[in-house]
Specification:
With 617 residues, this protein is an alpha/beta fold. 41% of the residues lie in helices and 13% in strands. Helix 12 packs parallel to helix 13. It is globular, with a radius of gyration of 27 Å.
Amino acid sequence: MRKLGAGIAGGLLAGALVGAVEALVAWLSRAGGAALPPIGWAVLVYGLVGAAAGLGAGVVALVLRTGAFGLALASVTGGLGFVVGRFRIIRDVFLEQAPHGLLPTFVQLGALVGVLALAIAVWRALRDADERRGLLTRPGVVATLVLVVGLGWMLLARAVSSPPPAATTVTGTPPANAPHVLLIVIDTLRADHLSSYGYGAIETPHMDALAADGTRYAHMFAQASWTRPSIATILTGLYPSSHGAMHKADLLPERVETVAEVLARSGYHTAGFPNNINVSPAFGFAQGFAEYHYLAPDLFFYADEAAAELTLYSGLRLVRERFFARYVNVHFYYRPAEYVVERTRAWLDGPSAKRGPFFLYLHFMDPHDPYMVHPFNGVGYARVAMPNPKAELADTLLKTYDGEIAYLDEHIGALVADLKRRGLYDDMLIVVTADHGEEFHEHGGWWHGTTLYDEQIGVPLIVKPPRGGARGRVVDELVTSLDVAPTILRSVGVPPPVAMQGHVLPLDTAPAPARDSVYAEEDFEGNVLQAVRTRTWKLISANAGNPRGLAPEELYDLARDSAETKNLAAERPTEREEMRAALGRATIKAKEHAGSGAQTDVDSATKERLKALGYAE
């Protein structure tokens, strides 16, 4: 029993130390996050996992007739530390593009051998610790120490919790007759799943009614297929390469100017209700908002937002949802539409909505996964639980996704009815769009963020103008997420900043600006992609060895193959070269407002990959 206890003590202490170090490192790398690192949660949870591993080490020590404390401390510190370190380096340093080849393999093996050698040295140095019966070899003492540190830190963190981001002060005088502005961003909504866009499986009467009261843009494309870069583009009017929020560890930099900042300087009261951790204040998205109310979910294992960034949280969440979950609670993932509408009504009842013209940003997460069955009954389909579903599940997932859209549309209708009741609707500018779409095995995959096919970047754009604007209009020009911010600004009488890269879309019957092509880019989970799309052709470029298994180049004749099923890159060299030239121009343009010397050149990695494909310098 003494050896087992010493093993538990060693593992508990090792786990707590590894957790504390990762919490500190993660906190130091995240400006604008929590006031204190999540050491309390890390010490307790990592310590608990370490204690379980330490018990196993104690059993091994009994068999080997060696010291259990040293074996547990060394093995848990080495093993858990190696896993955590490798995870963070691949994600935060290599941006999930794990190096391949002999050299990276030898480097990892060398690191593993080094960790093993250090662990053996620690074990040998402490193999007599059990017999000396020091305080740290006693599980009760170590457990008390870990509890005191963990709970004490949690209380301290609560007492000095992060102050809200510095509120933007409303300055300036709003333009004459400035309308209220409502920006609704719907996460993961494909345009081709709204009945106003021709979808027949479900009806979306309330979003259709908004389109009937304004303009529907038939060919709207996002500049990325996952949330952070796409919403950053919506709010800034900049390509992802220019605003810089492309990777999981990226923040929206202070150097960029958001539509909220411009409106606040123009006399607007700005408020936001983000509903996705990727656009929380911790990632810099509160810029320009006098109020930014993050609708945080109820995270698993009593974690907070900072703790949810740790390696062990991701692993435990995956295990729980994949192997043990019997009931899917949407509130552990996001706040559903009815909650968002309820919070919006409360805000409209308060004093903020009565301070003059306001800009209100609402983020609806339905129909993002988990796709929930409605009415809520605990049945849902989450990416973390089924990252690669069987192909025969496509119909089930698609129908559940459609059910989410119908549920969302109902609550959009409730929101619009409330605006009408308050007398706000007629004179309000309302913009409805989405950050990206979703894949249902059309190209052999699922979810989003890993391709730039139309099902992942084709999104809706509906603009309901203030009283007197065009109604029931459908625009066939190519438009993009870049156009949202400058259109909002110009529509309320505020000049858009020169840096914004989108077009201003008219709210009357004037023709929309012509655009020859649209461009999208991605650097997510090891998939580095660029795409350029005209009305008739589309070219997608992908990095070699990408995890999704995409070809280095894919060329599609959209006039004959709108589903992008037949790659013509080898068969149509003339069109391929024309689209290569268009992609090269678009790649340069996307970076023209980037920081750190990237204003006039493509980064070296992209340049080398394009040259390898035959692009001219």
